[in-house]
Design goal:
about 290 residues; two-stranded antiparallel ribbon
């Protein structure tokens, strides 16, 4: 049974509300995290707080705010190629730095709570949810708050590892709805390739002939090339505009290796709210440990 228009509207309201809450949570942490400096953290630990956790939060806030403002829940207009690249950049950045926050907290705990382990611990074993780090904080995390997010962290790694080591996450600019649209897009893209190829061949030919020309002829040749470049750019923009009219946009991102579209909303807001909960737990652990 298809949802009614009212049900679809309410879904959008809920998704928008959840996204707003996630953005608010990030901004609240940017206000609260500096207060951890009052705990007189040891020098390396303070560095991981300021240049690590807080700096990454600033980047995440900017990334998600851009997505929230430029890719609203109900957007159907296809993204331009430039918009799609920028959106993909922000999503990859969010997941890279979300996992970075977790790692920064792990090193912060190690330096602050058990600095003696630094000489013996394998750096590859340092992770917020590794047994090595969890074992040094049980007395100040009686509710085992962090353990509750261990499974979530494994899902984060599935988003982060492709970004860092294999293929980045990708936001498709549009979804084509028919075979006719697929064929038209392919035809337009071929026109772009042919236009660029023809221009390149003309430029090579002109360059080879330059050695037989006078200064005046070379000056005129450069002017002609500039005009052709301008004309080519205008033509490419016209074709881009035609491509952008095809299909519709669906706010989602792909794992290239899976080729499955994951919705931006609620996926990213939920992940950021989980990061907020972990950040609060880590802050409480530090407050307890530094009493």
């Amino acid at each position: 049974m298809q949802p009614t228009n009212y049900e679809l509207l309410m879904q959008k309201v809920e998704l928008r509300s959840e996204a707003s809450e996630a953005l608010s949570a990030i901004q609240n942490n940017l206000l609260k995290l500096p207060s951890l400096q009052l705990l007189n953290l040891k020098n390396p630990a303070e560095l991981y707080l300021n240049q690590g956790v807080i700096n990454r939060y600033l980047i995440i806030e900017e990334d998600f705010r851009w997505l929230f403002l430029n890719i609203p829940i109900d957007r159907e207009k296809p993204l331009s190629i430039k918009e799609a690249r920028k959106a993909s950049l922000h999503i990859n950045s969010i997941y890279l730095h979300t996992n970075g926050v977790l790692d920064n907290f792990a090193w912060l705990f190690l330096h602050q709570l058990k600095p003696k382990l630094l000489d013996s611990i394998n750096p590859k074993k340092v992770g917020l949810f590794s047994q090595e780090i969890l074992s040094i904080i049980p007395e100040v995390d009686e509710k085992n708050t962090l353990i509750n997010y261990r499974e979530w962290q494994q899902q984060m790694l599935k988003k982060r590892h492709p970004v860092a080591h294999r293929l980045p996450l990708y936001i498709p600019p549009q979804i084509l709805l028919s075979q006719e649209e697929l064929e038209k897009k392919a035809s337009l893209e071929m026109q772009q390739i042919q236009n660029t190829d023809n221009f390149a061949k003309e430029s090579i030919k002109s360059t080879k002939e330059s050695q037989y020309k006078s200064i005046e002829e070379l000056v005129q040749q450069n002017k002609d090339i500039d005009k052709r470049i301008k004309k080519l750019r205008e033509k490419q923009r016209e074709i881009d505009n035609e491509i952008n009219k095809l299909g519709r946009f669906q706010p989602g991102f792909l794992y290239p290796e899976e080729n499955i579209l994951h919705p931006i909303y609620p996926t990213i807001p939920q992940d950021l709210k989980a990061l907020d909960a972990i950040t609060n737990a880590c802050s409480n652990i530090l407050y307890e440990a530094c009493k």
